[in-house]
Amino acid sequence: MTLELPLKLEPFRTKIEATIEPYVEIQTHLTTEATLWQSKFAGLPYLPKGFDYPKTPEGDYLYLLAQINFVEVPHLEGFPQKGILQFYISAADDFLYGADFGAPTEQKGFRVLFFPDPVNETDDLITDFDFLPSSWNRESGSVPFCIFPDHSPQSSKCVALKFELKSAPISRNDYECEVILGEDFTSLLYEDDSLWEYYQQFACGHKLGGYPYFTQEDPRFYQNEEEAWVLLLQIDSDYKEEGIDIMWGDVGVGNFFIKASALQKLDFSNILYNWDCS
Domain limits at 60? Predict the structure, then answer.
């Protein structure tokens, strides 16, 4: 990948391009036709019959935030080639979306599930979700998504996903950016709004893998662990005229991180969940 850099960033080209890594870009569109095993944001999940629907320790139902069926995803090194990965969050705590910023890896207000060998047969799956309240009702700010103009449409509505393999350099507010690219680079971005906006394009949006985007700071800076956390899934704020509205607080972004060694073993028990907004 050769970047078209602004002239002021040309002195940093070698360092910037050395950081380029692949990721999978996620594009969204509204649908009512998604199957239970299809990749989606919100909507109804893939759950085998007899599987207990995920809840908080207090017994509140979690909401499906995202479901990724990896047979639909271009192969990304280190990521599964098959299986369904799910992300659930709580709506019980207004405006927190299930996050615990003091204990971001404790899966109480959120849950990550993985089904390594899913079946595409409705007869084998839970199909009656009438016990769930509407996941689209965001009047209280309890979940980061809704559909306008109706806050509570039929539960079959969801955000269907398309995937494309891309690549990008380290993001401007990645906790290692200044270490890798130098203080002169980060200072230049802070001094020039046009450069700041240009470089932001590499980090924003929905994605699997690659470098994360934050509106504030990288929470991994404070983790101080031997093995680094890598980006698993990023869901950005997203508004489209067709009626999709994903909004993390005040135009924020949600991130899920995992250790590369755990990802290789398909072990999703230790996940760092964070979101922030401006």
Answer: 7-276
